[in-house]
Design goal:
By secondary structure, the chain is of the alpha/beta class. Helix content is about 45%, strand content about 15%. The chain has a single domain, classed as P-loop containing nucleotide triphosphate hydrolases (Rossmann fold). It has six helices and five strands, in the order βαβααβαβαβα. A five-stranded parallel sheet has the order 2-3-1-4-5, sandwiched between helices. Helix 5 links the parallel strand 4 and strand 5.
Length: about 140
């Protein structure tokens, strides 16, 4: 299963992904680490779409090997979410704006999501999300 944890920078995506590891056996893919690995710091719409495809391909590779994937990724637009074919989408909606104006201007709230996190309390949300996922560790 590929689980996308998306939201603005600083919303708590990485913290939530790490906390979820206490409940399910999964690998985390951090989008910043993928950018660093690809040496691709293009934050245009095209660059963000490319990043979405890159993170999805890496997630798919891991999922095909039999592991669950927690993809920690801003995924700011409907197009980036469309390119990233997650099985379960968690929207971390805990801040109104990030420290990056370009991301704030580009970011659109997802129209469809499986779980909506509204406070920065990963220890609270992780077991609730795990129950919703119904994945046995």
């Amino acid at each position: 299963m590929i689980i996308l944890i998306m939201g603005l920078p600083g919303a708590g995506k990485t913290t939530l992904a790490r906390e979820l590891l206490n409940f399910l056996d999964a690998k985390i893919i951090n989008a910043d680490e993928q950018r660093k690995k690809a040496n691709d710091w293009d934050f245009s719409k095209e660059g963000r779409n490319r990043q979405s495809e890159r993170v999805y391909k890496e997630s798919l590779k891991i999922a095909k090997s039999g592991s669950h994937v927690l993809a920690d990724f801003i995924c700011p637009t409907e197009m980036t979410r469309k390119l990233f074919l997650s099985d379960f989408l968690i929207w971390v909606d805990t801040i109104k704006k990030s420290r990056f104006d370009d991301t704030n201007q580009l970011f659109t709230h997802p129209k469809k999501y499986d779980f909506h996190v509204t406070t920065q309390d990963a220890k609270y949300w992780a077991p609730i999300i795990f129950e919703k996922l119904k994945i046995i560790k």
